[in-house]
TrEMBL record:
GO terms for cellular component: plasma membrane. It comes from the Bacteria. Coiled coil: none annotated. PANTHER family: AMINO ACID TRANSPORTER-RELATED (PTHR42770), MEMBRANE PROTEIN (PTHR42770:SF7). This is Amino acid ABC transporter permease. Pfam families: AA_permease_2. It is a multi-pass membrane protein. InterPro entries: AA/rel_permease1 (IPR002293), APC_superfamily (IPR050367). The chain crosses the membrane at residues 34-52, 64-83, 119-141, 147-165, 172-193, 216-238, 259-287, 307-329, 359-379, 385-406, 427-447, 453-474.
Length: 511
């Protein structure tokens, strides 16, 4: 029940809530370091099955290789910053929590909103690709695809709602199976590769070289930079791991371990798939650059077309792993913003016995599903599919880049303005790595905006922001709740202000 008491802080007002408010929003601690590792790796792994390969068209194999190094550096800077912030601020809010403590309510809300774009739209796009795979495997008509989408949401929402123990168990299993699928491909490919002939079969201007042995950078360094947005798919969503902070048994110990181990796993996998997939005889970088199923094409080249449907079932594992884990993150992200009053508070109610944020997960799923169904039926099968596969995908990446900039900035501000916060893990690369993350994210955004396909998604992000910012400005900011994230931010803001005042006074009285 809401109290009549209000606390005004700057441009926002807090409503106090009694004990029952938080009792109806409880989570359960279950995750260990391996569960967290699986959550991070599983969210990303579908990007190693497909999506990254479009960068081969932009910059050839060499350009994509350089782009992957640059993006890996950006994500290393981001993950080490998160590895420091998440155990210091072990709240479900994650990115929103970091920015709220360092930049105030508006900074926290805008960061959370950027991440919300990513976590609502990414599973919607992934379920579209799942439907495409299942259509080919079972021979259903294209018009039947929405049924696959709805069925996938029902199954994996059910698994996530059933309980955190089952959710993490499924996450661990599907992530390991997806990685094993990749390992089988790597081992299989070793006896069927000719790197110079096939990986280097793109010439200047993007033309195919029938005999291969082309230049390392067929389109120069500009081609490598244009490939940056595609390299993002090899690591996108590793940052979701801190959303499990309040369901981690020991977040101060396990969160840094899980996210760093997850990032190292992804780096190994990214460079393995980048090197081996285009090198398989009979495929090559040129054909792979426009493929919708690069890993499946690699399996077909090695084992033949006869077992294509069986291989497709194997390949869909990566999509399933990412879909399941990002639904988990979507629910926690909406839950945290709702519990604090930034979104309507009914979204943060947890299941009475399962203690999972079922309302937030269902709400996010319905929104994502509504978007893809609207595009599909309004634009038609072909145009609607293209809009889902490219426009929504690009909106998710754009939201992610904005959140990375804000999270890295949060790290810098927390280091500078609140040095006394307890930090169980300390980022050894410090502020310079966060600055590098911001710079690379800005460059990546620039090259996204240079691509007409990417630009189509910007209007969608602008509308998304306009709707939610209007809600927060008119309603939400007057109804914030003192959730754990908000209490932590206010408490440490007051402590930092007091410390600053004491230091200023000491300076005035010093001889």
């Amino acid at each position: 029940m809401a109290s009549a008491d209000k606390k005004v802080v700057g441009s926002v007002a807090y409503q106090t809530r009694d004990k029952s408010y938080f009792e109806s929003r409880q989570l359960v601690r279950h995750a260990n370091a391996w569960h967290l590792w699986a959550l991070g790796v599983g969210a990303v792994i579908s990007g190693h099955f497909s999506g990254w390969n479009g960068g081969l068209t932009q910059g050839g194999w060499g350009g994509m290789f350089i782009a992957t190094i640059i993006i890996a550096i950006m994500y290393l800077g981001l993950t080490f910053a998160i590895a420091e912030m998440s155990p210091a601020l072990p709240h479900t809010g994650a990115a929103y929590s970091f920015a709220r403590t360092s930049m105030g309510p508006w900074g926290g809300f805008l960061t959370g909103l950027a991440e919300n774009v990513e976590y609502v739209l990414t599973p919607a796009v992934i379920v579209f690709f799942i439907g495409s795979y299942l259509t080919g495997i079972f021979g259903t008509t294209p018009e039947f695809q929405p049924v696959w989408w709805i069925a996938a949401y029902i199954v994996f929402l059910g698994l996530n709602i059933w309980g955190v123990a089952l959710s993490f168990r499924v996450t661990l299993v599907v992530t390991i199976l997806a990685l094993l699928c990749l390992v089988v491909f790597w081992i299989s490919a070793l006896g069927h590769i000719d790197f110079s002939r096939w990986a280097l079969n793109i010439g200047p201007g993007g033309v195919e070289l029938p005999d291969g042995n082309g230049p390392f950078l067929p389109n120069g360094i500009g081609g490598a930079l244009a490939a940056l947005p595609f390299a993002v798919w090899l690591f996108l969503a590793i940052e979701q791991l801190p959303l499990a902070a309040e369901e981690s048994i020991d977040p101060k110990r396990d969160m840094p371990r899980g996210i760093i181990l997850g990032m190292l796993t992804l780096i190994v996998s990214a460079f393995a798939i980048l090197t081996l997939n285009p090198s398989v005889s009979g495929i090559g970088s040129f054909a792979l650059g426009s493929s919708g199923e690069p890993l499946l094409d690699g399996f077909k080249a090695i084992y033949g077309e006869g077992i294509a449907k069986g291989l497709a079932l194997v390949a869909v594992l990566g999509l399933i792993a990412s879909f399941h884990t990002i639904i988990f993150a979507q629910g926690r992200q909406i839950y945290s913003l709702s519990r604090a009053g930034y979104f309507p508070t009914f979204l943060s109610v947890t299941h009475g016995t399962r203690k999972t944020p079922h309302v937030a997960m269902i709400g996010g799923a319905l929104l994502g599903l509504a978007v893809i169904l609207t595009l599909w039926f309004l634009l038609g099968e072909e145009r609607g599919g293209a809009a889902i596969g490219f426009t929504l995908l690009n909106m998710a990446v754009f939201g992610a880049m904005l959140s990375y900039i804000m999270q890295a900035l949060s790290f810098i501000l927390l280091r500078k303005n609140q040095p006394n916060i307890e930090r169980p893990f300390r980022n050894p690369f410090g502020i310079p790595s966060a600055v590098l993350t911001i710079l690379i994210a800005i460059v990546t955004l620039y090259f996204q905006l240079n691509d007409p396909i990417y630009r189509q998604g910007i209007l969608g992000v602008a509308i998304w922001f306009a709707v939610f910012v209007a809600y927060f400005a008119l309603v939400g900011r007057h109804k914030l709740i003192l959730s754990p994230e908000e209490e932590f931010a206010l408490e440490h803001a007051e402590a930092a202000k007091a410390a600053s005042g004491a230091a200023e006074l000491a300076g005035k009285v010093a001889p």
